[in-house]
Specification:
By secondary structure, the chain is mainly alpha-helical. 44% of the residues lie in helices and 5% in strands. It has eleven helices and four strands. The strands form two sheets. It has a two-stranded parallel ribbon. It has a two-stranded antiparallel ribbon with strand order 3-4. Helix 4 packs antiparallel against helix 5. The relative contact order is 0.10.
Length: 220
């Protein structure tokens, strides 16, 4: 089947990740992910199969939160440290899928390369912008909490404090006593991951409370 594909006797091939990564054909025009990849690194490499001849490559990914649950089940039985890394990679992939910002900008930022253009003119978010709402007030609370806690905690803990969740870390470090504990309402709590993600990409978390611009995110 691979030989037929390389010789252009067939136009479409369905493959596993390992098999697909072995395809070396310069004029692949489409890469379609039926399942969401396990990491952004994997996604970046797999989409790199397309357009190696300099021509256009269309990359389409189907995303469903149930896919994440399935991938998390695959990690059962592994060491806790390995599961923690796996969950972090999945969270990054989910954040990418759910984001409203330019996908090129987000991918390049992930690999440490700045991209200053507001609109790449190619990805779905730039071609068909999603509905956005002003989340600047939530961002203010996030930055204030990060400063209050001296940047000691992960994103998940910051979210738990603002949502008012008494998790192990929150109670162990007495974060329930922080004045920002539980200040984000039920209507806004689904925005928190998007606010932190996009504020990180845009560099707002490095500027302090008084020096960020208006942040708008997509309601999920």
């Amino acid at each position: 089947t691979q030989d037929h594909f390389l010789m252009e006797e067939i136009e479409v091939i369905v493959a596993t990740i390992a098999f697909g990564m072995g395809i070396d054909k310069p004029d692949v025009r489409y890469v379609i992910h039926y399942d969401i990849p396990k990491s952004l690194e994997g996604y970046y490499q797999e989409t790199g199969r397309a357009g190696r001849d300099g021509g256009e490559g269309q990359c389409i990914a189907f995303y469903n939160k149930k896919d994440l649950l399935k991938l998390e089940k695959f990690m059962e039985g592994k060491q806790e440290s390995e599961k923690e890394i796996g969950r972090q990679l999945l969270n990054e992939t989910a954040a990418y899928a759910e984001s409203s910002m330019c996908r090129r900008r987000q991918l390049l930022n992930y690999f440490g390369e700045p991209y200053l253009e507001e609109n790449c003119g190619n990805c779905d978010n730039c071609l068909n912008p999603k509905e956005l709402i002003d989340a600047s007030d939530i961002l203010s609370s996030v930055i204030e909490l990060i400063i209050d806690t001296k940047e000691k905690f992960r994103t998940e803990t910051i979210i738990d404090v603002l949502r008012g969740r008494e998790t192990a870390d929150v109670t162990d470090y007495e974060l329930t006593e922080n004045e920002l504990f539980g200040t984000v309402g039920n209507d806004e709590e689904t925005l928190l991951p998007a606010v932190i993600r996009e504020a990180t990409v845009m560099g707002y978390l490095n500027k302090g409370v008084e020096n960020y611009g208006v942040l708008k995110v997509t309601p999920l």
